[in-house]
Write a structure and sequence with these properties.
Length: 342
């Protein structure tokens, strides 16, 4: 059945399908139809990627070196509902999938809740929510149809219009990071870390950087001394003519061998062309300089993970890096001015 459907649909390259099959331990006849950046909602949102085939729906993330993956069958799903945006979903509609009693137990570590033996999975913050929802509903409705009927309903949902480069990647490799900014700032570490506190300095920095409707969750312990929070904001029109939106996951921990902090961030861009094709990675390394100097050394590393290949990747990467460097300069200048004004 999958092979017959595959001949009539925009199937990924053999390399991408092989990586998909290997990731979830699937048979050779399983093919990838589409995949989407989103957040899995458990106790806290987990940024990752949702993979759709004719038979299964799978989720995978490798965030800050911690890997989570699971899948379940379309036929295991009893109901799919859309929940309107809430404060906890950071303004994003939520797709809630409820499995039949006793089904999908191998994937229960990804479930938000378990009620009467039914697992509930919550997915939110899709870059292309309408396309993702339309494709998901088409595949679920087609789960018991013949191959011909399955192709027809998916085509009617316009899923066939989603064009993906044949060399697209699942983005499973560790991202390569390069230093894009380094500066000794005339502020102590404790003051600089207020940039990530959710307080006055945090809001002021985001405002000056052209970030509107800034929303953040409190820092919560992820494991040991590692803390995590999620942020969301929109770009000012002076920053982006598309006025896109950003969802971001940040992790904060102390440096192991130095007096300072490490802040890592994974960003997803919404509402801009090709936003579903990549994730941005930032790493802030903040080290305390001699106490009497009241200064700190800040190094920022940047990387980009291409989830789907596209033309002009080098030019896009260069433009993003230039914009990121300009933004960092603005942030650091604001921090120093605010400290001097105290």
């Amino acid at each position: 059945m999958e092979k017959e459907v595959g001949r009539k649909m925009n199937v990924r390259s053999p390399q991408t399908n092989l990586a998909f099959q290997k990731l979830f331990g699937l048979p050779p006849e399983e093919f990838l139809i589409n995949d989407f950046t989103c957040h899995l909602k458990r106790k806290m949102p987990l940024q990752g990627r949702l993979f759709l085939s004719a038979r299964i729906i799978g989720f995978h993330t490798n965030l800050f070196g911690h890997q989570t993956k699971f899948f379940f069958l379309w036929e295991d799903i009893e109901d799919i509902q859309i929940v309107p945006p809430t404060l906890s979903s950071m303004g994003s509609p939520i797709i809630v999938m409820t499995l039949r009693p006793g089904r999908g137990m191998d994937a229960q570590h990804g479930a938000k809740t378990k009620e009467d033996g039914r697992l509930k999975f919550r997915f939110q913050s899709f870059v292309s929510f309408n396309i993702a929802h339309r494709t998901i509903m088409a595949l679920w409705k087609a789960r018991s149809l013949s191959p011909e009927q399955r192709v027809q309903i998916i085509e009617e949902s316009e899923a066939k219009s989603i064009q993906t480069d044949e060399s697209s990647s699942l983005g499973l490799d560790d991202v390569s990071m390069s230093e894009v900014y380094a500066s000794a700032l005339s502020v102590p570490v404790s003051f600089f870390m207020e940039v990530f506190s959710g307080g006055i300095l945090d809001h002021r920095v985001m405002e000056k950087a052209g970030c509107l409707n800034y929303f953040y969750t409190p820092w919560e312990s992820e494991k040991g001394d590692v803390y995590e929070r999620h942020i969301r904001y929109k770009f000012d029109k002076n920053i982006s003519c598309y006025r896109g939106e950003v969802t971001s996951t940040q992790q904060r921990s102390t440096l192991s061998d130095k007096n300072g902090w490490l802040v890592e961030e994974v960003m997803t861009l919404h509402g801009i062309p090709l936003g579903d094709n990549f994730n941005l990675h930032l790493r802030y390394q903040i080290e305390d300089l001699p106490p009497k100097s009241k200064r700190c050394m800040v190094r920022v590393y940047f990387g980009i993970t291409w989830l789907k290949s596209t033309t002009n990747q080098k030019r896009i990467t260069k433009n993003i890096m230039k914009n990121m460097q300009d933004r960092l300069k603005t942030i650091f200048c604001v921090v120093e001015r605010e400290f001097a004004a105290r």
